[in-house]
Specification:
It contains eight helices and eight strands; from the N terminus they run E-E-H-E-H-E-H-H-E-H-E-H-E-H-E-H. By secondary structure, it is α/β, with parallel strands linked by helices. It folds into two domains: about 5-85 and about 100-155, Nitrogenase molybdenum iron protein domain (Rossmann fold, 3-Layer(aba) Sandwich), CATH 3.40.50; about 165-275, 3-Layer(aba) Sandwich (Rossmann fold). The strands form three sheets. Strands 2-1-3-4 form a four-stranded parallel β-sheet, with helices on both faces. Helix 2 links the parallel strand 3 and strand 4. It is globular, with a radius of gyration of 19 Å.
Length: about 280
């Protein structure tokens, strides 16, 4: 089997795949997954892929032009060898009114960063294992065994993660991009304001001034940013307000400490705990 993952952030899904697959992907975890430019070599990878796995919704708007360029009909939308990992996920931030791109790089169908909620990760891992088993039934038992090991490891960690953040339930942070609602909901934290005035729009002086007043008035303790988000604005705002900058991972291997999915959640929980502790 030669699955193609649209994003390297899905690398943790090797967990249910065992030793019978040769995985390839396009997007480095150190870049914003919204803004990826596929290369000719990626077209060739998709052309040869037995399975095309993607996060779904409007996270990777570049994925279908890539599939079209590859001409692999088996991985076209709705085909047997295509897997949309947003299926079966309870989405957050689903718009209640018509939206347009004039409002920024908005998520028209709901927030697509859903893998940061462990229960969603379970759903996605099951979907991968089921699809691999259907396409490669000779190794279905191995896929199931690897899936069970991943689910057991995840289930063991979930109570500990929640316990570590339990003293800080309801605390408010400031985010960089609208990438964190699933993680915040899982841990009982909130993000009401972002460094971006609109999704995908760089911070403006007017918005930065508003945020600085907001952070001071609301006593917001920390600003969350991903590794790919520019450091200048969050560091400047933190210096002027006394808030801490918390570097989190939303992608596996975005930072060395985030070597797999469980390690990524371990890292994020530790970072948040340190930022929120007195």
């Amino acid at each position: 089997m030669k699955p193609f993952l649209s994003l390297l952030l899905l690398l943790w899904l090797w967990a249910p795949s065992g030793e019978h697959v040769e995985v390839s992907s396009i997007a480095s975890p150190k870049f914003n997954p919204h803004f990826i430019e596929p290369k000719p070599s990626d077209v060739l990878k998709v052309k040869r892929a037995d399975l095309f796995v993607h996060a779904g919704l409007d996270l990777e708007l570049w994925r279908w032009p890539l599939v079209d360029a590859a001409g692999n009909r088996e991985v076209m939308p709705g085909a047997a060898h295509e897997l949309d990992l947003s299926r079966g996920i309870e989405l957050l931030e689903v718009p209640s009114r018509p939206l347009s791109r004039l409002e920024g790089d908005i998520h028209l169908y709901g927030n697509p960063h859903s893998w940061l909620q462990p229960e969603n990760a379970k759903t996605m891992a099951r979907a991968i294992a089921e699809k691999l088993s259907a396409l490669d039934p000779a190794h279905a038992g191995d896929y199931r065994k690897s899936l069970d090991a991943f689910l057991a490891r995840l289930q063991e960690k979930i109570p500990a993660w929640r316990t570590r953040l339990a003293p800080y339930q309801g605390r408010e942070l400031v985010g960089d991009h609208r990438a964190w609602p699933y993680l915040m909901a899982f841990l009982g934290l909130t993000i009401e304001q972002h460094l971006e005035p609109k999704p995908g729009i760089p911070p403006t002086p007017k918005h930065v001034a508003f945020l600085e007043r907001y952070i001071v008035e609301r006593r917001v303790p920390a600003i969350v940013r991903a590794a790919y988000f520019p450091t200048q604005t969050p560091e400047a705002v933190a210096t002027r307000t006394g808030a801490k900058v918390v570097l989190l991972c939303q992608n596996v291997r975005e930072l060395p400490a985030c070597s797999d999915y469980v390690a990524m959640l371990d890292y994020n929980v530790s970072q948040l705990t340190q930022a929120l502790s007195p």
